[in-house]
Amino acid sequence: MSIQKAVDYFGNESRLARAIGVKQPTVWAWNKKGTPPPIIRCVQIEKLTGGAVNRKDLRPDDWHLIWPELAGDQPK
Predict the structure, then answer these.
(1) pLDDT single digits (tens) 40-72
(2) What does the alpha-carbon distance between residue 56 and residue 76 come to, in Å, rounded to a whole number?
(3) CA atoms of 31 and 69, how far apart (whole Å)
(4) Whole-prediction pTM value?
(5) Which terminus, N or C, of the chain has the lesser number of Cβ atoms within 10 Å?
(6) CATH class, range 3-65
(7) For the chain, which residues make up each domain, given as ranges?
(8) What is the radius of gyration, based on Cα positions, of the chain?
(9) Pairwise CA distance, residues 20 & 40, whole Å
(10) DSSP 3-state assignment of 38?
(11) Separation of first and last alpha carbons in the chain
């Protein structure tokens, strides 16, 4: 999971949290406990980072079930 990549992009957990409208402990839980961010937050993070952190990175185990349209982006 690349939530750490998003944290790095924003500078710290607090800045990421503010940018997406959650509290810092929420981002901490995603980062340290491995809890995947909710679907809507993944979309927000992808948009705010200009795709530097994408939905596939944030939810590597189930992105293909949530966003099947992204499956065509996979290298063959």
Answers:
(1) 999 999 999 999 999 999 999 999 999 999 988
(2) 16
(3) 26
(4) 0.88
(5) C
(6) mainly alpha
(7) 3-65
(8) 12
(9) 10
(10) coil
(11) 22
Q: Which tens digit of pLDDT belongs to each residue from 11-31?
A: 999 999 999 999 999 999 999
Structure tokens at 46: 């992808």
The pLDDT, as a whole number, for residue 1 is 64
Residue 27 in tokens: 């981002």
Give which of 41, 44, 43 is closest to 26, Cα–Cα.
Answer: 41
Q: State which amino acid sits at residue 55.
A: R
| CA trace torsion 46, 41, 38, 25 (10° rounding) | 120
d(CA 9, CA 27) in angstroms, rounded, equals 13
Judge contact between 1 and 7, C-beta under 8 A.
no
